[in-house]
Amino acid sequence: MVVSYTQEHVYLHPWHRVTAAAWRKFTDPAALPHILDVQTLSRDVDPRAGRLHAVRAIAGRPPPLPLLLRGLAATAGAGDVALCVERTSVDAAARAMRVVSRNATFRRLVDVEERCSYAPHPERPDEWTVFTQETSIRCAPLAAVSATVAGMVERRCAESFAQNAARGKEAVERICDGLALAEHVPGPSPADGEER
Amino acid sequence: MVFGRGKPSSPAAATSSAAAAACSELRAAYHECFNRWYADKFAKGQWNKDDCAADWHKYRACLEEHLEDKHLRQILLESETSPSYAQLDPDSSSRQGATPSK
């Protein structure tokens, strides 16, 4: 059994700004309260081709589980921190950003994969950005988990993912607004002088 | 400073707690450098120079020493040997200059 869904959102900001905000949403301390810690585990920059690849570990508070599932999560060895591994590729020349995230904890219980992309909007490529997100949630085929419980885990995860996705979008919008403001007001540092 | 010690209580709870505590300043310096470089240069077409390599090497060395989580450690160590652009965007791998530089 797999639950999957796709969401799309149009940001009324250019691609460079939206992707910059997407990088920041987990590292700006106040942006998302359920995020506890972010570490960058690898990064490769190809300065010739304008490509970038990074892997980050994101630790967050897991969603509150129904009582029935709490015991199950404990047996599956999951702690009170949910860890995700996020792989991001950016091709700046093509203005393409892709982000694939997977849970690293609770894996014996559930497998969540999220694939996101940020691309210039076909109608206003220099002004707007299309964000798409495909999420698939699969309950582990645990012998201990009945189909009913599996369905419940999947629905529960889907709900909390939808909620976090909404928070993430709001955070990106807020950061975009901040970046837009900073682009129009010359910053205090002389290094910012090269901006238009 | 964007990433100060604003939330001293929370990182200790995370899985990578030892690394979070030991490397927090190096991490903040790297993430701040990266976020600025990405927004001001890389995303706007000036990708010919990697401004944050020095900060990254310091931060990474710290993680290598302090990261305890086995799964994360494996990703950290694997990343040294296998640059992996291609795995996420197969469409663009045929373009010129597709070979990673290191």
Strand element count of chain B? 0
Helix content of chain A: 25-40%
Q: Can you tell me the number of structural domains of chain A?
A: 1
N- to C-terminal distance of chain B: 32 Å
Report the total helices of chain B. 3
Largest interface (CB within 8 Å) is between:
A-B, 54 and 58 residues
Stretches of chain A where pLDDT is under 50 for at least 5 consecutive residues are 190-196
Textual characterization of the structure:
The complex is a heterodimer of chains A (196) and B (102). Chain A has a single domain (2-185), classed as START domain (Alpha-D-Glucose-1,6-Bisphosphate, Chain A, domain 4), CATH 3.30.530.20. Helix content of chain A is 29%, strand content 37%. Chain A has three helices and seven strands. Chain A has helices at residues 15-24, 67-75, 147-184; strands at residues 2-11, 35-46, 51-60, 82-91, 96-103, 110-120, 129-139. Chain A has a seven-stranded antiparallel sheet. In chain A, strand 4 and strand 5 (96-103) form a beta hairpin. The relative contact order of chain A is 0.21. Residues 190-196 of chain A have low confidence and may be disordered. Chain B has 102 residues and is mainly α. Chain B has a domain at 17-74. The longest helix of chain B has 24 residues, at 17-40. Chain B is elongated and about 35 Å long.
Lay out the secondary structure:
The complex is a heterodimer of chains A (196) and B (102).
Chain A: E1 2-11, H1 15-24, E2 35-46, E3 51-60, H2 67-75, E4 82-91, E5 96-103, E6 110-120, E7 129-139, H3 147-184
Antiparallel strand pairs in A: 1-7, 2-3, 3-4, 4-5, 5-6, 6-7
Helix pairs in contact in A: 1-3
Chain B: H1 17-40, H2 53-66, H3 70-81
Helix pairs in contact in B: 1-2
